[in-house]
Structures are given as structure tokens and as C-alpha cells.
Amino acid sequence: DVRDTWVLKLGLERPLPALPAQIPLPLAFLRGMERETGFVRILSGDGVKVEPAATPGLLQIDVTELPKSLQGGSAPRSLAYRFPARPETAIVAVEALEPRVSVEQGTRVTIRAEGTDVVVGALYKVERAGIFGVSFALPPGLDVLAVRVKGVAYNDHKIRETGEERLLEVAFGDRLLGAAHVEIDARAVTPLPGEGEDVAKEVQFPVPLISVRGANHLRGYLAIHLDPSLEHRELDRVALTPLDAAAPAALEPPATPGAALPLVHRFEHHEGGSALEVALRRRDPQVRATVETALRVEPDRTRMATTLRYDVRYRGVGTLRFTAPLAVKDRMHVDLE
């Protein structure tokens, strides 16, 4: 014998067919009632778009007109209806949304004689539908040392060779819908002449740049640092806009390992496809010296003590030369500190 006011709550779940599709709404109705009125709220979940296809007997209203029990929660879009009598079957059109991915990428390349370090920081903003990973195109000869992810659980990464590209694929442990930051440390050989070769020879060097794949919108900044022992000149540049090296950066790329080297270039790029090639050569040695001489005059001789302080920069030398009076060559000794 049921009396007074009772509240009965039902939870229903039904799998969807392959999208896009038209879906009958699984509405529950009462039995044995003289009159039945009610409200319906339809929320679009992450990654889907829901539009009314047929709503006989349903009158669309504003969400604020719904009972408080139906006003909670949030969704990209919400539809609200009321019905003064039991409606016929309502149908909605459901389609999957494609993710909208925006990326701000900062890249710092540090070119040293012993190797080139590349550090990338990519800030992802994912809207409409979630993603479970991201990918980057790697140039030949670039070794990935580490991958770090903030803002979403990180699963693992792998390098996959395709017919056209060498891809770094970073997998997330959860779906990303919102913001996350991915950092990559990588290293490449700087192709300078080695032992037994012409060490001053100029070589062509395609700067190893990591490119974001799968982004709808991309804005990137590139900073190039160069070892002072090297000279360079630009050979070719694609889709890179030079920026004033003295102006503050709109996006500061991550720091590279070791001491910071002089900044020689900064560029901005959009939508990928950027490339930079330079010519490199070792600088000629620069030798600076300071001569410190003390003379002592005695009744039978003059004594001379001379200190030569050398500062050799950029590249080593095989010989250090100096001159002294020929008359003292047999009474001269040299100490090297």
C-alpha cells in the first residue's frame, strides 16, 4: 500500500551503433496513470555531437526551466524539453567529433663541436574530443634521449619508421581532453672533420628539427645556440620567420643540458614544414699572450726573468713560439707551467 510522496530513480545504459547514426531515445514512462507529464534533458558527452532529428510531443524549453534535479552537470551542448502528455518515440542524430588540437611548440637547438642537443617543449590544448597520444616527425640521425609528459598520465613512447617519415609516438595512459605538456630531449652528431682531416673544412649541416604531427593549429619558436669555437652561415631556410634575438621570447623553449651558449638566431614558425640548413667550420685558433719581464743588472751580467702567459681559444695549436736575444741561447732555461 504505497502512500504519500515517493521518488524512484532508474539508471539505464545502452551501447551505440557505429556513428554517425540516428538513435531512438531510451525513455522510461509510467503505466496506469491518468495523466503523465515530464521533462527530458539531453547532454552531449565528450567527443560526440547530438542534434534532434524527430521529437514528436516534446516541447523545447530553456535549461533553466528544468527541475533542479535535471539542472546539474555540464556538457558542450545541452537540450531541454517538457511534455504535457506521453510523447511518441523521439530520435536524435549522433555523430563523432574530431579532436581540435592546438599546439605551442618551443625548440632549443645547441650546436657544439662534440654534438648537437635538441630540446622541445610542446603545449597541447585539445578540445571537442579526447586523444590518447601524440606524434612527432624526427629527422635522420637524431636520437631521442628522454620524453616527459605533464598534465596527463604518460604510458610510453616508441619510434616507428614509415615509408616517408620517422615518427616518435607518445602514448598517454588516459584520454587527454584539455591541456598537457610534452618535453623531448634528443641529440645528434655535429658533422665536423675529425682527426687526420682538414679541421678547418666547412661542412653543410641540416639543423635537426622535430616537427609536431596531427595538430590543427601550430605556433612555434626556435632558438639556435652556437659554440663560440664554431663559425656558421645560413644556407637555406624554409617557413621560418627571423625574430630579434634581443627581444623577449613569447614562448621560452626548455633549457638544454650544460652551460648556456650564445644565442645566434631565433625564429617563429606556423603549421610545420620548417627547415634550416647552415654551413659550419671550426674557427682558426686565436692566440693571445702577455709578456712579463723582470731585469736585474749586476756588475758582471744582466739577469732576465720572463713569463709568457698564453691564452689559446677556439682550437688548439701544436707549437708556441717566442724570440729571445741570440747571445743568451746557451744560458737560457724554459719551464712550462
If you had to describe this structure to a student in words, what would you say it looks like?
- By secondary structure, the protein is mainly β.
- It is built from no helices and 20 strands.
- The chain has strands at residues 21-24, 38-43, 48-54, 59-61, 78-83, 91-96, 100-112, 115-138, 143-150, 154-161, 166-188, 203-206, 211-213, 217-226, 230-238, 241-242, 263-270, 275-282, 286-297, 302-313.
- The strands form 5 sheets. Strands 7, 8, 9, 10, 11, 13, 14, 16 and 17 form a 9-stranded mixed beta sheet that branches. Strands 1-6-3 form a 3-stranded antiparallel beta sheet, with no helix packed on it.
- Strand 10 and strand 11 (166-188) form a beta hairpin.
- It is rod-shaped, with a radius of gyration of 36 Å.
- It starts with 20 loop residues before the first strand and ends in a 24-residue tail after the last strand.
- The relative contact order is 0.13.
- The mean pLDDT is 86.
Distance between the termini: 108 Å
Q: Give the overall shape, derived from the CA principal axes.
A: rod-shaped
Helix percentage range: under 10%
Count of alpha/pi helices: 0
| Proportion in β-strands | over 45%
Global structural class: mainly beta
Mean model confidence by pLDDT: 86
Radius of gyration: 36 Å
Low-confidence runs (pLDDT<50, min 5 residues)?
A: none
Element-level helix/strand string: EEEEEEEEEEEEEEEEEEEE
- Let me know the largest β-sheet: 9 strands, mixed
**Strand segment count:** 20
